[in-house]
Amino acid sequence: MKQGIHPKYYPEARVMCSCGNSYTTGSTKQQLRVELCNVCHPFFTGEQRIVDTEGRVDRMKRKYKLQ
Q: CA-to-CA distance for 50 and 35, rounded, in angstroms?
């Protein structure tokens, strides 16, 4: 392997979620910011968010005047 071409590895990198949860892991960056984690992700919490797909399709049809 070539010397000096690999990024520095941080074994105690801090991961911070938008929900406020934080934990440590290994990474090539010292701090990582994420939007979802196992505390707030719907798969792990059992909470289901309703996505208004019908409203989105209707808006697109109106915008582009599709039948």
A: 18
Q: Give the integer Cα–Cα distance in Å for 29 and 15.
A: 10
User: What tokens appear for 12 in the block?
Assistant: 């105690």
pTM over 0.70: no
Closest CA to 23 of 8, 7, 12: 12
CATH T-level fold of 10-64 = Rhinovirus 14, subunit 4 (4.10.80)
Compute the distance between CA of residue 19 and CA of residue 32 in angstroms, rounded to an integer.
14
Domain assignments of the chain as residue spans, ordered by start: 10-64
pLDDT tens sequence across 42-67: 776 777 665 555 677 778 778 887 75
In this structure, are residues 13 and 26 in contact, taking their beta carbons and an 8 Å threshold? yes
